[in-house]
Amino acid sequence: MIVISPMQSNSLPIGDIPTQVFRSAEPYRNEVVLIDAESNHQFTIDDIINQSTKLAAGLARCGYGGRVISVFDNTNLQCVYVYYASMMAGGAYQSLGTSISAKSLRDRIILTQTPAIFTSRLHLARLKDATRGLGVRIYIFDPECTPNVAVSAVDICCGSDGQGSCCCAPISHLLIDDPTFVPVRITSKADAMAKPAYLTYPTIHGTSPQQPLMLSHYSLLSSQQLTRPPRLLDSANRTVVSAVPFSDAHGINIIAHFPMLSGSRVVQMSSHGSGSCLGTLEKWDAGAFLATYSILAEIDKKAVRIGDRIAIGAQSFDVSSLNVIFMHELRATQAFKERISALFQARLVELYGYIETGLIAGVITEHPRIDGSVGVLCPNVSAHVVLNGKEMEDGQYGEILVSTPRLASNVCSDSKNAGYFCTGDYGMVTADGVVVIKARMSDLIYMSNGEVAVPADIESVVAAHPDVVDCAAFAVPVKDAEGSHIPHVAVVPAAKASLNMDEILESLAIKYPGITGFFTDCIPRNDKGEPKRAHLRDLACKQEARS
């Protein structure tokens, strides 16, 4: 069953992302839409449009048009200029990610043949080492730069300094006020598909981490609902505090488009300590908080609710204006989501990659809430659900496959699903386009009776036991039965609790034949809050071997 997004507009206007966004925001050019939480530097729509246009003209003049332009920085809001300018010059934006290894950094630069990289002095030495001998130009966000070799505006386009090192200059050298510059425009869907807007490096199962995923211009911005939204009034809902790194693909997409389209303002944080986050929420009377699992987990560990305030040690914070928390990573435990909602007394919404900007806009502007889901497919996306090669019908679960003009590569290679992107997510898409995510395909438990078990379904039953602190379900392969699993559960008991594993699993035994488990001191989790199921599987197999 193919499901078409119900959010499609009547007509699909042609044009690149900057054209769509800037045209939508034109009447509100003096509005402040982006604020640096640390420096309090404020960006108006007019500033973003003007600086991006000047930078695009500079990129074009230096011969960088149509190329991948990169950023190696996760703190400087001038990344927004690079994002729009790279597309206006006919190229694509790439975040190199400051947490990657030196080898991965160099590999990504070579793979995408990026001619220019923007960074801050904080990362300059590391970047110069990674680009040595590549002839890449480095531009500094800082107002002043003191490189090893002094360069002029002419030198910028000359490659290297003649000694194998890269040229280095301040970003101001590329800001050109050129009235003759004409931004590259997208004239058709095929044109858009051939010109990706930005590159990201997904961690989807089966995809090489070094192979970039290209996201096209012809995006959710073709929705009339988003390009002509109601402007938010000057209220708490209008201010969003963001602790998501804005230089990555998801962050820049939200931070660049969302405030300009919705009329909200985003206060972007660079440091993400628990006290810093709560203090920023209080200072700006924020109505929404955009965060990652790791940030919320740290707050969950340290903070307590005391009346109408949240306390960490001797400090307390008034965050009563907060209405909604957007968490970027999916699949946190239900218990964790309930604790966060109770702590902040705010609704928690998980974001999904194909709907995130639309979902934020919908929630902020008080569109109807969709319970138990991560929202509706964004405009111009169709989806279908497949399990073991079989097409699923309405209400059935399987792997979600999507077809979207945002994706210009890495789609399914088999002929039956040609043109669809394999998300690796197990869930369903209703006939109305509502997306429900249950698990990763790699975490499913394929039982010998032909049924598929979802770890979260087992965990919710076990976690309901009053003496269970935490738990995680996972699959253990059945010997001599390829493709079949036995459900296992690792259980963390409450202190001094006397528990019997058979009693805990008794209500699950009929639905999940052969289910078994063991007690442990803690559940190891990754930075998204997901249990490290492979590690638990190894523990279970070792215990079984010893017995």
Helix amount, in percent? 25-40%
Quickly give the CATH architecture of the domain at 43-186 and 195-203: 3-Layer(aba) Sandwich
Provide the low-confidence segments as ranges: 144-165, 204-209, 218-230
User: By helix and strand content, what is the structural category?
Assistant: alpha/beta
- Let me know the number of strands: 28
Could you explain how this protein is built, in words?
Pfam families: AMP-binding. The chain is of the alpha/beta class and 547 residues long. Among the domains are: 43-186 and 195-203, Rossmann fold (3-Layer(aba) Sandwich); 444-546, ANL, C-terminal domain (GMP Synthetase, Chain A, domain 3, 2-Layer Sandwich), CATH 3.30.300. Strands 3-2-12-11-13-17-18 form a 7-stranded mixed β-sheet, sandwiched between helices. It has a 7-stranded mixed β-sheet with strand order 8-7-6-4-5-9-10, sandwiched between helices. Strands 1, 19, 20, 21, 22 and 23 form a 6-stranded antiparallel β-sheet that branches. Strand 4, helix 3 (79-88) and strand 5 (92-95) form a beta-alpha-beta unit. The radius of gyration is 25 Å and the shape is globular. 44% of the residues are buried.
